[in-house]
Amino acid sequence: MKSIKIMITAGLIVALSSGCEKVLEEHPQSQIVPSYFNSPSGVLGGIAGVYNDIRGQWGTEGFTVEMQAGTDEFIQGVNAGTGNAYTYNGLNSSNFGSAWGVAFQDINTLNGVLQYGQTIELPETTRKQYLAQAKFLRAFWYFYLVQTWGDVPLHTEFITIASQAATRQPAAAVYELIIKDLTEAAADLPNQPTAPFLGKAATKPVAQFLLAKAYLTRGWLNNTASDFTQAAKLCDEIIANKSAYGLDLWQDYGDAFVPANDYGKETMFVSDHVLDPKYGYYSVGGAAGGGAAQNLSPWFTNWNYPNNSGINSIKNAAGVFTNSGTSGMIRDSYYGRPYVRMRPNSDKQTTGTRAGKNYFLDQAFTNRDVDSRFANSFYTVYISNTAVTNTPTTANNTRGIGYTTVPGSDTAVWLPDYEVPGAPQFVGSRPFKGIVVPPSLWNNGIYPALKKYMDPSRGANFNDPSTRPAVLYRFADVYLTGAEANFKAGDAAKAATMINVLRQRAAFRKTNSTAQNTTAATAMNITAADVTLDFILDERSREFFGEWQRWHDLVRTRSLIRRVQEWNKEAATYIKDFHMLRPIPQSQIDRVVEGPKFPQNTGY
Question: Same domain for 322 and 427?
Answer without folding.
Answer: yes
